[in-house]
Amino acid sequence: MAISINEISNGMGLLVNGAVYIVSEVHHVKPGKGSAFVRVKMKNLKTDLNLERTFKTADRLDDVYLEERKLQYLYRAGDTFHFMDQTSYEERAISLSEIGDAIKFLQDHTEITAVYYNGQVQKVYLPNFITAHITETEPGFKGDSSRAGNKPATIDTGAAVQVPLFVDKGDWVKIDTRTGQYVERVQK
């Protein structure tokens, strides 16, 4: 559906040069001389690349309907991941290429948000934080504090993260899935 520049708002989906973008910032500019224009910052849903474009009053843009679905991870079969739709309880399959970097922190029964366009997954969002089990790391020593430094560790999903020196194998930690950084040690 074609829309005018006045209808652009934050969070909406736009089709630009065949790629789906989500609008992150919109600035309507009305100069004293000349016609109004809109400066739009948007993010490609597939590649996460940011794009800044200026649109004039006469420009018509393609608005796309993006559908968000809550899914729960069930199991993996090869390069296909199976999820249960939380509203319809149907099983949905998502390929490894569609999941992308989210695979590093995908745990059993994790609830994710999948963004669909024309029935195809465009982006997968994990919860902001997960609680993970440390499966492998160097042993910690008494007296190591959180300010002394970091060491590599492997969590139960197989991802490598940096943790403070006092964290041991078998500990549970809170990880920020957006950055992959250690947040805190938790009791489980």
Give a brief description.
By secondary structure, the chain is mainly beta. It contains 1 helix and 16 strands. A 6-stranded antiparallel beta sheet has the order 1-6-2-3-4-5, with no helix packed on it. A 5-stranded antiparallel beta sheet has the order 9-8-7-10-11.
Number of domains: 3
Order of helices and strands: EEEEEEEEEHEEEEEEE
Mean pLDDT: 88
Count of DSSP H/I helices: 1
Low-confidence region ranges = none
The total beta strand count reads: 16
Shape: elongated
How much of the polypeptide forms β-strand, as a percent range? over 45%
Explain what this protein looks like in three dimensions:
- The structure is a single chain.
- The protein is mainly β.
- The chain has three domains: 2-64, SH3 type barrels (Roll), CATH 2.30.30; 67-125, OB fold (Dihydrolipoamide Acetyltransferase, E2P); 129-186, Beta Barrel (OB fold (Dihydrolipoamide Acetyltransferase, E2P)).
- Helix content is 2%, strand content 54%.
- It contains one helix and 16 strands.
- The chain has one helix at 96-99, and strands spanning 2-3, 13-16, 19-29, 37-44, 50-56, 61-64, 67-77, 80-85, 91-95, 111-117, 120-125, 129-137, 150-155, 160-164, 172-176, 181-186.
- It has a six-stranded antiparallel β-sheet with strand order 1-6-2-3-4-5, with no helix packed on it.
- Strand 3 (19-29) and strand 4 (37-44) form a beta hairpin.
- It is elongated.
